[in-house]
Write a structure and sequence with these properties.
This protein is an alpha/beta fold. 41% of the residues lie in helices and 17% in strands. It contains nine helices and seven strands; from the N terminus they run ααββαβαβαβαβαβαα. Strands 1-7-6-2-5-3-4 form a seven-stranded mixed β-sheet, with helices on both faces. Helix 1 packs parallel to helix 4 (94-100) and helix 5 (111-126) runs parallel beside helix 6. It is globular, with a radius of gyration of 17 Å. The model has no long low-confidence stretch (mean pLDDT 91).
Length: 236
């Protein structure tokens, strides 16, 4: 815990000399490798299609555990920034580190502010910055893939960047919600074939959302049709 706090403090201070956020990304990758290695977690990474390192992407991943963040830091093969809810920015040290890393915060309580954030994120993607988003909006409570929210698909279509479906399996068993300790084991992370969005418009959003979710569900071995939200998930 002390080690993590020290790294978070260094990451937060790095914004004083590196306005690009790349130093925070490197610290995040290093921190993630150390945490998972110390916990006995092994990552199995599979790519179902090659990615062009010169192009920006919108990576969309299911979310079942805190481990997913560390896994994404390690596995995503290009420079990226997380898209996260604005409340995380208020966490001392960690929120400051995220801000120094130029992570993109979305205010879910304010539709106008959320739209401005999405437009800014789209500009950054068009300038070459890849992003990672958890389109379910929160961690699943029952282990099943939840319905996807629409904001990330507005972002992908506005920017014209291809969406890369990602599927993480095994993380919830090693660190379920509210758990403080990580169990040893294997986590599998799969990258699916990119879904193009260039030339698409608002009318294509629902179809694109359905296609991306189907691909994530397929990699997880789950039904493609979203199940009705459980009482716990519906409360999120």
């Amino acid at each position: 815990m002390v080690y993590t706090l020290v790294l978070a403090a260094v990451a937060a201070l790095s914004g004083l000399w590196d306005r690009s956020g790349e130093t925070v990304l490197r610290i995040g990758r290093f921190w993630s490798r150390q945490v998972l290695a110390a916990s006995g977690v092994k990552l199995k990474i599979e790519h179902h299609a090659e990615l062009d390192p010169s192009r920006p992407y919108v990576f969309m991943c299911n979310h079942a555990s805190t481990i997913d963040v560390w896994a994404a830091f390690i596995a995503v093969p290009v420079s990226f920034r997380f898209i996260a809810k604005k409340q995380l920015a208020r966490i001392p040290l960690f929120g400051w580190a995220m801000a120094a890393g130029r992570m993109i915060f979305i205010d879910r309580q304010n539709a106008v502010a959320a739209r401005r954030s999405i437009e800014e994120a789209a500009r950054r993607i068009r300038a070459g910055q890849s992003v990672v988003i958890f389109p379910e909006g929160t961690r699943t409570r029952d282990g099943k893939l939840m319905p996807f929210k629409k904001g990330g698909f507005h972002l992908a279509i506005d920017s014209g960047a291809a969406i890369v479906p990602m599927a993480i399996s095994g993380s919830r068993a090693l660190m379920p919600r509210k758990a403080m300790l990580i169990q040893a084991g294997e986590v599998r992370l799969q990258f699916g074939e990119p879904v193009p969005t260039e030339g698409l418009g608002t009318a294509d959003r629902e179809r694109t959302l359905k296609l991306v979710r189907e691909r994530v569900a397929e990699m997880l071995g789950e039904p493609a049709t979203p199940a009705p939200p459980s009482a716990e998930n519906a409360a999120q």
